[in-house]
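Table S2 (continued). Query chain:
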Amino acid sequence: MKRCLFDLHARDTVMILGDVTKIMGIVNASPDSFSGDGKSNTAACLRHARKLVREGADILDIGGESTRPGALGMKPQEEIRRIIPVIKVLARTIKIPISADTSKLDVARSALDAGASIINNVSGLHMATSFLKMVRNYRAAIIIMHRRGTPATMHKYAHYKNVLKEVIEELRMAVEKCLEIGINKNRIIVDSGIGFSKSAGQNLILLNGLNRLNILHYPILLGTSRKSFIGEILQKPAGERLMGTAATVAAGVMQGAHIVRVHDVKQIKETLKVTDAILNADT
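Corresponding output:
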């Protein structure tokens, strides 16, 4: 199945999505990250970020707050302390777009002032109007991820009659909210929220039917890297889920994903090189 092509505008950057899969490399400035790769200081984050760039990341996603199930959150000041020094240095020294993984207005604004061009908001329908107006005013791109509840409560909301249909409808509502605020259509990416307020089985259904998100007519981001549903299948801890992650990435790309958000850029880049070759083969 050929992917739809999109021009993604992120402030002054334009990225073509759909010809080959783009890789968003994860930089966790959060020591309590579920994946075990959290960095405790700016220098460690910068070393890791530069490594991901060398390995072929097309975007870097910098986050300072864990959103693992049960996480209680933190004050904006602490999140700013963790990620803004990293973004400032990277914005001066690398050429690829920088995304800030946050749902807090003050953190997002500080990240954009520091040089980020994409905001990765994991709060779904809970996005505040003031937050969206700020994104609009900066002409930033926004990733809208589906989630119910908060990281601390989302396990209570994994109840769906039809998970695909309901996720698509709730994403549609979130997109419409962005459009009403004045965010341009070419600055929006959607994410089905694998692992957020979904059971392991529901995650598999979403992954298997990811192409259904094409009805929204926006580029699709897939975030499956090292997540617990892979661990349930393989019976392996987060640090040993690379091959399972690669399988989900290949499946998601064949189902239309434009961007994959991953920890292991080097290995996943090889997975994508083969998957894209299959996807783009003339038939």
